[in-house]
UniProtKB/TrEMBL annotation:
This is GntR family transcriptional regulator. It comes from Bisbaumannia pacifica. The keyword DNA-binding applies. Keywords: DNA-binding, Pyridoxal phosphate, Transcription, Transcription regulation. The keyword Transcription applies. PROSITE patterns: HTH_GNTR. It comes from the Bacteria. Signal peptide: none annotated. Residues 13-81 form the HTH gntR-type domain. InterPro entries: Aminotransferase_I/II_large, HTH_trans_reg/aminotransferase, PyrdxlP-dep_Trfase, PyrdxlP-dep_Trfase_major, PyrdxlP-dep_Trfase_small, Tscrpt_reg_HTH_GntR, WH-like_DNA-bd_sf, WH_DNA-bd_sf. In the C-terminal section; belongs to the class-I pyridoxal-phosphate-dependent aminotransferase family. Coiled coil: none annotated.
Length: 468
């Protein structure tokens, strides 16, 4: 096939990198859809007036960026990015009867037997005293009134999210809330800004809803205000989606001063804020959400999933008052209403204090695991929070993340690279995300982390070693 990459070339920097970035932009723009076979090396070299070796290096770089796949005897093909990034990340390992993989890959709270017993006891209590509307509810689209009232008290008091009962919408988990918020103010083709590394669910939503997603530079506190300012000036986004507390995968958490600076940028540019605060309860009380600084232009999304049980898909969406009538039809179209029984259980735990107990216990259990990981990886740079689900680990120079992932699987470990969280098609950082909650047995977690630390001290097998 013949392709024209010249509109996407910057003619800056090394030629092979420029060609790889041009391929990335052509793929992002839809000019090279998934499954497209790229021209042979010599043909593209002649078209661009470069050497065959330059095209070979460009194709190799594009493969490192997960843009393309070289198939022996068949050529080089554009990846289906949904499969290459999201599906591979979410795909469960094949079950093994002996020595199953130690899971360091999936975000999961620690769920000791006590959690399950509390859940069963709560269900028994609800069987005796659940509100009569729980099973007969049909028309309260935004949620049963008593559940929204309790949620409003909690959101105002514990999380400091502005608004009233009429601005609270119950939804089936944070992912559902995020989709509703975006769909309310973002149209097909609109541009949305987010962190350069962000939750894979948002990246999947951009493809599903058809909006453009652009990454903004981040540091140890999350999005950089100056970079956000420059991106707002350049791209004039319709909305900005941010995770100010324990950004996935890095764990970056904004200080109050950083939140003030980011809110000032958003207010100046009058851009919609969609705040993903799903990890709020993994931090002690005290942090103020971004939307508290922007009550008329900020959507806030949180849930109970990360501190209770993953199956408790109780999500809470707070919507600016003037947008509620736009959000409700989208809730009705996607699920009619959130599952009332789930929120009746959440209402019970909010009322009797169980939720705060679970949140405190979760922070304590994760803190123990973070201390364990810090001890095992002493000498290896990493980012984390004292009670985060994850560790963002830097790798020695000899290792690339995808190579370590492959070798770790041979050692019985499952971990995650940066690829599922990358907004832009750039070379992935030499880091891996280690999830500390998926393995419920802390001894099994210790074994997995120790195996990985030992692996980091080794050199990659010969076929994996990197040539610079």
């Amino acid at each position: 096939m013949t392709i024209d990459l010249t509109p996407y070339l910057s003619n800056e920097g090394p030629k092979y990198l420029d060609i790889a970035q041009a391929l990335a932009e052509a793929i992002r723009q839809g000019e090279l859809p998934p499954g497209t076979r790229l021209p042979p090396h010599r043909q593209l070299a002649e078209a661009l007036g470069v050497s065959v070796q330059t095209v070979s290096r460009a194709y190799a770089q594009a493969e490192k960026m997960s843009l393309v796949q070289a198939r022996v005897g068949s050529g080089t093909w554009v990846n289906a990015l949904d499969d290459a990034r999201e599906s591979e990340y979410l795909r469960s390992p094949e079950p093994r009867l002996e020595n199953p993989l130690i899971d360091l890959s999936i975000a999961h709270p620690v769920c000791p037997p006590l959690h399950h017993r509390r859940f069963r006891e709560a269900l028994m209590e609800l069987a005796e005293r659940a509100h009569p509307d729980v099973l007969g509810a049909n028309r309260p689209i935004a949620g049963l009134p008593h559940q929204r009232e309790r949620a409003n008290d909690w959101l105002l008091g514990r999380l400091k999210v502005p608004g009233g009962v009429e601005e609270r919408i119950l939804c089936n988990g944070a992912a559902h809330g995020l989709m509703l918020a975006i769909a309310t103010v973002v149209q097909h083709g609109d541009l949305v800004l987010t962190e350069a590394l962000t939750d894979h669910g948002l990246i999947a939503l951009s493809r599903t809803l058809g909006f453009q997603l652009r990454g903004v530079a981040i540091d140890a506190e999350g999005v950089v205000p100056e970079a956000l300012e420059a991106a707002c000036r350049r791209f004039r986004p319709r909305a900005v989606c941010l995770t100010p507390t324990q950004l996935n995968p890095t764990g970056a958490t904004m200080s109050e001063a950083r939140r003030d600076a980011v809110a000032e940028v958003l207010a100046r540019h009058q851009v919609w804020l969609i705040e993903d605060d799903v990890h709020a309860l993994l931090e002690p009380p005290g942090l103020t959400p971004l939307c508290a600084r922007l009550p008329r232009q900020g959507f806030h999304v949180t849930s109970l999933t990360k501190v209770t049980l993953p199956g408790l898909r109780a999500g809470y969406l707070s919507v600016p008052r003037q947008q509620v009538h736009h959000t409700l039809p989208r809730l009705r179209a996607t699920s009619w209403m959130a599952t009332p029984l789930i929120f009746e259980l959440a209402d019970l735990w909010l009322a009797d204090g169980t939720l705060e107990t679970l949140a405190l216990e979760q922070r304590e259990m994760l803190a123990e695991r973070q201390r364990l990981a810090a001890e095992i990886f002493a000498g290896h740079p990493f980012q984390s929070r004292p009670s985060s689900l994850h560790l963002w680990l830097s790798l020695p120079q000899a290792w690339r993340a995808e190579e370590l992932q492959q070798q770790a699987e041979q050692e019985g470990l499952s971990l995650t690279t940066a690829v599922p969280f990358m907004v832009e098609q750039t070379p992935p950082p030499r880091r891996v995300r280690l999830s500390l909650g998926a393995e419920q047995d802390i001894d099994r977690l210790r074994d997995g982390l120790t195996r990985l630390a030992t692996l980091l001290e080794d050199t990659p097998p010969p076929m994996m070693q990197i040539v610079y």
